[in-house]
């Protein structure tokens, strides 16, 4: 469709002197009477962020109208966001969604531009000038801080950084977590916390066949971590993880669960009133924590060399330092009780505290979106872009999808629905005229020339395919699905070959 | 998704499944007992065990490729299973399918908007469908892994199943599969947040 733009601009000067009829003909009325070189342009949409939200939004837009063109801009040279950098290495099936995204990227009406930092290389304002609509889908790259003393001691990491480290996120390459201690404490009881626990305790034989990075594999081979506590403020009926991940922990070879029976008081009685997903999850938790194991399970647990367990009703108040060496020696936890029940139960301090010796603290209490451009409305309290069904408040032509829209919770299926919602809002707005697409927009042509002026060279999807192909070849050589490139420099080098 | 499905079928890399239970009769592995399914004996009775084995070996079984060619000449009336998909807008899409067809891939083949993000590996819930009451009990019980994924699906109902786990048998003729209308954010327990 970009060819129609070029043709039109070339024809314009030539038609000026001609009669109205020929001008009409040249300006695009074909013999069949249907406009093909139309002066009304194809709607051009720009998506900021090349992760699941970006790709699902693009997919739905392209499917929704035969004339929409979508350009996806991504800061890193490589696409796919948290599917590549967040999903655990031992969950390869979850990454199958990359095949769907690849098809979207290769669609004739979709283009991918990697290595473009929106907010720095090009502003959202400039994108809004170049496109009919801009969809912000850049997710949540920040992290909720615990806000306790000692949080910045060596030995304390955010789960986001720890996951980024074992998944090869370039900015986390230098993390070098200290795994020489026996006990690790993870704050938070969501799926990310369980992923971290699982990676810390998985037998190396399993990990070495995944796409975990080589440096992480080597560090884990030397790890002395034998006990992982997964700590939450509230009780067993408020855990944020889902049943699949809990089942995996229970079945993790070489490990056994160890929990505090008193934490489960009142839980069996409350089961019958729970909705199905929460009920099944709680039943499994009770079984794992309390039930006397059968013969086979008893044997399995007897042979285990590593221990894991949930600890409930505890909030961090301080990370304790080793007096002689500047590093983590323990964590002080306040004891809570619950007020209310169900999802809305609140943790209330009792005044008691408990110190747990540990050398590794990983805080998994949530990711957080950051504002990338001062012109974009941003609610700093909830850390989302204020919107209604994806339409950004007080910003016509601006939309958002994914975690930036709803907050950083949910799995890929959640993001799918969320992005389709935003795409649907956008398409409705085109149909209703609320989004004016009658004036042609230059789209990527203008953005490319801006980027060129600024010395930024985008990575195309076929450039990414060179990186992809190299990673997979390297992986094959060592029995892994891929061996990831770990720096932006290496990625760009391969992209430019 | 039809365009995506069509594009996907041209990619040699990704798996194509129009049938989960292949027609083993013409496969050399079955005849020479080199195939694990021949050991199981039955091919189309849809016994729970063979279904489970098949879904586990989905990614590696040679029968997969054989399935593409096998029985395509059969317009055998006994083989036909009539299916109706009801999409999110309420539109009814009748499809003439065959015994052994997988509901997810059948949907893709006919341009029905049923997403299958994890490609039938029980790692997501995007192919969630409601099964017509008259056919729901005819389906084999879901395995634990399917139930685990169903727990994550918004608007879970008594007659919810994952499309990628439904394989057509003759007694499913007339089955109707409805796509859930939900598109809002959701929580593990089905709680729908109030807009704020």
Estimated structural class of chain A: alpha/beta
Q: Measure the end-to-end span of chain B.
A: 32 Å
CATH class type of the domain at 80-178 in chain B: Alpha Beta
What's the mean pLDDT score of chain A?
92
Q: What average pLDDT do the residues of chain B reach?
A: 71
Task: Give me the Rg of chain B, rounded.
Answer: 17 Å
Largest interface: A-B, 40 and 39 residues
Principal-axes geometry of chain A comes out as: globular
User: The biggest beta sheet of chain B, please?
Assistant: 5 strands, mixed
H/E order of the elements of chain B? HHHHHEEHEHHEE
- Examine the secondary-structure arrangement and name the CATH architecture of the domain at 80-178 in chain B: Roll
Strand order of the largest sheet of chain A: 6-14-7-8-10-9
Cofactor (chain B): [2Fe-2S] cluster
Domain 2Fe-2S ferredoxin-type (chain B): 82-183
InterPro entries (chain B): 2Fe-2S_ferredoxin-like_sf, 2Fe-2S_ferredoxin-type, Adrenodoxin-like, Adrenodoxin_Fe-S_BS, Beta-grasp_dom_sf
Protein name (chain B): Ferredoxin-2, mitochondrial
Written overview of the protein:
The complex is a heterodimer of chains A (497) and B (196). The two termini of chain A are 28 Å apart. Chain A has helices at 2-15, 20-26, 52-64, 81-85, 97-105, 124-130, 159-166, 191-201, 204-207, 214-221, 243-250, 267-270, 276-290, 295-302, 403-406, 412-432, 444-453, 461-477, 488-495; strands at residues 44-48, 69-73, 110-113, 133-136, 142-143, 156-158, 183-187, 227-231, 255-257, 306-311, 314-321, 328-339, 346-357, 360-363, 367-368, 387-388, 391-392, 398-400. In chain A, the strands form five sheets. Chain A has a six-stranded parallel β-sheet with strand order 6-14-7-8-10-9. In chain A, strands 3-2-1-4-18 form a five-stranded parallel β-sheet, with helices on both faces. Chain A is of the alpha/beta class and 497 residues long. By secondary structure, chain B is α+β, with helices and mostly antiparallel strands. Chain B is built from eight helices and five strands. Chain B has a five-stranded mixed β-sheet with strand order 2-1-5-3-4. In chain B, a hairpin with a 5-residue loop joins β1 (80-86) and β2. Chains A and B meet through α5, α11, α13 and α16 of A and α1 and α8 of B.
């Amino acid at each position: 469709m970009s060819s129609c733009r070029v043709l039109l601009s070339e024809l314009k000067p030539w038609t000026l002197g001609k009669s109205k009829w020929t001008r009409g003909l040249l300006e695009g009325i074909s013999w069949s009477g249907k406009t093909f070189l139309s002066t009304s342009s194809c709607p051009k949409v720009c998506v900021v962020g090349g992760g699941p939200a970006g790709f699902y939004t693009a997919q739905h837009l392209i499917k929704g109208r035969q004339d929409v063109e979508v350009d996806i801009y991504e800061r890193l040279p490589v696409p796919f966001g948290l599917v590549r950098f967040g999903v655990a290495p031992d969950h390869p099936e979850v990454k199958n969604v990359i095949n769907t995204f690849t098809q979207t990227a290769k669609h004739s009406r979709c283009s991918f531009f990697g290595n473009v930092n929106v907010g720095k290389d090009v502003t959202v304002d400039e994108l809004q000038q170049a496109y009919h609509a801009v969809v912000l889908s850049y997710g949540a790259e920040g992290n909720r801080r615990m806000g306790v003393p000692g949080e910045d001691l060596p030995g304390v990491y955010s789960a986001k950084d720890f996951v980024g480290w074992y998944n090869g996120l370039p900015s986390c390459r230098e993390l070098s977590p200290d795994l020489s201690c026996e006990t690790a404490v993870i704050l938070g009881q969501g799926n990310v916390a369980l992923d971290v626990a699982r990676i810390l305790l998985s037998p190396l034989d399993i990990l070495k066949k995944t796409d975990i990075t080589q440096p992480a594999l080597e560090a884990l081979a030397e790890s002395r971590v034998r006990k992982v506590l997964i700590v939450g403020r509230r009780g067993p009926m408020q855990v944020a993880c889902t049943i699949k991940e809990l089942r995996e922990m229970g079945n993790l070879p070489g490990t056994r669960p160890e929990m505090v029976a008193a934490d489960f008081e009142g839980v069996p009685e409350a089961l019958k009133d729970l909705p199905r997903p929460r009920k099944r999850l709680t039943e499994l938790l009770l079984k794992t924590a309390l039930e006397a194991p059968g013969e086979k399970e008893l044997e399995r647990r007897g042979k285990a060399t590593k221990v894991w367990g949930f600890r409930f009703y505890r909030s961090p108040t301080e990370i304790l330092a080793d007096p002689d060496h500047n590093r983590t020696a323990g964590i002080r936890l306040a004891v809570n009780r619950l007020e209310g029940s169900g999802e809305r139960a609140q943790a209330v301090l009792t005044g008691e505290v408990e110190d747990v010796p540990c050398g590794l603290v990983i805080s998994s209490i949530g990711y957080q979106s950051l504002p990338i451009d001062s012109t974009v409305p941003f609610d700093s309290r909830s850390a989302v872009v204020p919107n209604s069904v994806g339409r950004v408040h007080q910003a016509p032509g601006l939309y958002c999808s994914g975690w930036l829209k709803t907050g950083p919770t949910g799995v890929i299926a959640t993001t799918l629905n969320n992005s389709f919602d935003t795409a649907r809002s956008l398409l409705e707005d085109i149909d209703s005229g609320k989004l004016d697409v009658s004036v042609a927009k230059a789209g990527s042509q203008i953005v490319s020339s801006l980027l060129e002026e600024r010395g930024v060279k985008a990575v195309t999807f076929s450039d990414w395919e060179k990186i992809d192909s190299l990673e997979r070849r390297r992986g094959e050589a060592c029995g892994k699905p891929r061996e990831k490139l770990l720096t932006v420099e290496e990625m760009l080098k391969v992209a430019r070959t | 998704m039809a365009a995506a499905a069509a594009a996907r079928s041209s990619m040699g890399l990704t798996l194509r499944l129009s049938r989960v239970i292949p027609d083993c009769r013409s496969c050399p592995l079955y005849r020479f007992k080199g195939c694990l399914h021949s050991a199981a004996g039955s091919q189309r009775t849809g016994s729970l065990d063979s279904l489970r084995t098949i879904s586990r070996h989905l990614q590696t079984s040679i029968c997969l490729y054989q399935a593409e060619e096998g029985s395509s000449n059969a317009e055998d009336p006994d083989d036909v299973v009539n299916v109706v998909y009801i999409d999110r807008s309420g539109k009814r899409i009748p499809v003439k399918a065959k015994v052994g067809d997988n509901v997810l891939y059948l949907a893709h083949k006919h341009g029905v908007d049923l997403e299958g993000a994890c490609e039938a590996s029980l790692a997501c819930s995007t192919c969630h469908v409601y099964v017509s009451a008259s056919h729901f009990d005819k389906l084999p019980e879901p395995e634990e892994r399917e139930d685990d994924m169903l727990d994550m699906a918004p608007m879970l109902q008594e007659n919810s199943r994952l499309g990628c786990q439904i394989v057509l048998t003759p007694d499913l003729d007339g089955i109707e599969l409805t796509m859930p209308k939900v598109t809002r954010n959701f929580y593990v327990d089905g709680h729908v947040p109030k807009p704020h």
